[in-house]
Amino acid sequence: MKTMATRSQNPADAIEIELIRSLYTGFVPSLIMSIGFLICGSLIAWRTGDTVLGLLLIPGALSTALRLGIARRDAARAARPRLGIEEARRLERRFAFAYLSFALILGLFGARLFLLPVVEAHLLMLALLIGYAAGVAAGVGLRPRVAIPSMVMAVVPPMLAALWGGDLLYVATAIMTLAFLAGGIGSLRGRHARALADIGRGLTFASLARQDALTALPNRLALREAYDEDGFEARAARLVAVHCLDLNGFKPVNDRFGHPMGDALLTLVGKRLASSLRDGDVAARLGGDEFAVFQRNIGHPDEARLLAQRIAATIGRPYVIGEQALEISTCVGYVVSDDPADDLERLITLADEALYSAKRSGASVRRYEPAAGARAAA
């Protein structure tokens, strides 16, 4: 993406990603429920001697292992800052498959048990069902498309079996349990709606804190976050470059035509700068007429030189604001790094040295070289 604004998802996608991430925060309750089901289910199957219950424990154990394995394996991927919407949805589908599989087995196990005349086991099963529904609401309640089917599949079949028996107390128990389930689903939907609003506000404030108000480019904080998100391993595998630039002729425009014209010019410069970049590169306004670009994942230093030249050519084209034609130019200093431990501020300092060397010599593009300082790009 060409800027942090376009690199990030649109607001709806960003909110959905945060909600999907919430699925992976309830591992411990899931572990407790899984252990509880295996222990209590084994006791119930042993106590009743029912073959069907014993057989249901097998897929129950498998779905439990699958559910915990997926939750543990995918948690780190879901937490990645640069998680995209398509990958997030794939993670959710895997999570939902395992989660719903366990809910189905739990519901079938409970339904079978409530058809058997083993009153003492019914109480234990009811405790499991209530605990499971509460855990679902607490753990995955921000994703109703996962939570609601899970609760329905686990709770409704056993309660229908309880109703089938016809005993008045069992009928009352089933009706009350289903009523609590319906109320819980309603509360869950309300919680989800509030979470949507809260997450949306949080993302908006976070975006504003990382965005230059004038040009809509990322600011210095967002540039650092992009550099840090790139990660040590990614920078170890490929080269990165940092470019610094400022505008030649901007101050006379500002002095002659006033700050509104200068602001409009900076806005157009920001748009041109963003349009010059590849997907994955990040342009930021550092302040005034100073900008920086983080160019990630390059295979050869020539790629950095070509980008610097493209930026200089793009920004140097004439501008028309209202009825006024304006001309400015830019100097670009850049540094290429193969050291994954390099700090962004150090790279900005080196690129800035190359920039001022270019301005002194009249060059439009200059690369920083550790051995000889800054030299003109070939």
UniProtKB/TrEMBL annotation:
Residues 238-371 form the GGDEF domain. SUPFAM superfamilies: Nucleotide cyclase. InterPro entries: DGC-Regulatory_Protein (IPR052163), GGDEF_dom (IPR000160), Nucleotide_cyclase (IPR029787), Rev_trsase/Diguanyl_cyclase (IPR043128). SMART domains: GGDEF. The keyword Acyltransferase does not apply. It holds the Pfam family GGDEF. The chain crosses the membrane at residues 21-46, 52-70, 95-115, 121-139, 170-188. Keywords: Membrane, Transmembrane, Transmembrane helix. NCBIfam families: GGDEF (TIGR00254). This is GGDEF domain-containing protein. It comes from Sphingopyxis macrogoltabida.
